[in-house]
Amino acid sequence: MVGGGQLARMTHEAGIPLGIRFKLLSDTPQDSAAQVVSDVVIGDYRDLETLRAFAQGCDVVTFDHEHVPAEHLRALEADGVVIRPGIEALLHAQDKGVMRERLYEAGVPCPRHRIVADPEDVARFAEEGDGFPVVLKTVRGGYDGKGVWVVRSVEDAADPFRAGVPVLAEELVDFARELAANVVRSPHGQAVAYPVVESIQVNGVCDTVIAPAPGLSEALSAQAQELALKIAAELGVVGHLAVELFETKDGRILVNELAMRPHNSGHWTQDGAVTSQFANHVRAVLDLPLGAPNTRAKWTVMTNVLGGDYPDMYAAYLHCMARDPGLKIHMYGKGVKPGRKVGHVNTYGDDLADVRERGRHAADYLRGTITE
Q: Is residue 95 part of a domain?
């Protein structure tokens, strides 16, 4: 796996029961996955020769991020390295402009959009629709709210162009809430779909995920799952695909983003599904039969633990575990920094309000926001 973050750490964990030998390309020995994987190569994923040396002896190479240069992945594929997902699929997670164009061609509902050349072009894009505000995104490199701007005038539109990459303009969608449809697809076309979830963002960062999305009609849920499965097939995705969606106030769904790897909106599956997103990603890239995506409880809630001013999270385990023996804590081994994702907690049960409260309390206590 290329990338040493928490996604690689949890994917490695999912492969252990299957006896999968796991090799990691990590930036530093301190990265989340590098702390727990026995076979670690320290190197730069942006260097082709490092990637070539790393790939030797691997049956398949997969990723915990989308940032490996496309030309390097094409070179590896030309060398005969098995890459899953392949670059022809992964490109649509790397470049938002390419993704939007391909989804539009496939008839997938998306916000109104186009590539813009400069602030004046942004103004023209706004005039073509309902005016300002509009959303601007750098086509590459953004995550967790980075690389995204809501601009309210032509004067506000200069910053995105300083990144030196193309800029995508999109309408600002008046949405009721954000959803996510997670699916997994294998090389021979077997696919499974997890229940559609509600994803609650705070300051551009995922805070809480509720599975299944409360109050979502069966028809819209099925439409979202079918849409994600269609995208996976159209793009030839192998492995896990997260389709982030807007549910509009008039009852439609629009595709916001794609991620071709395990995803924050699927962390609930570790404790709330028969087969986790991580286990099914491992199965898919190795072309093994996929596991059942069914839920284990009526409700499962994932709450992210963000770093705060309280570095000694281990001491907080005493309180959290004693207060809630059913709580599942997943920490990433990261240093604590304000606002940084350092872990998550999963709670589950029959009463949604209770499940949410338990998750919120544990995450806040681990962060140090509350002390009782």
A: no
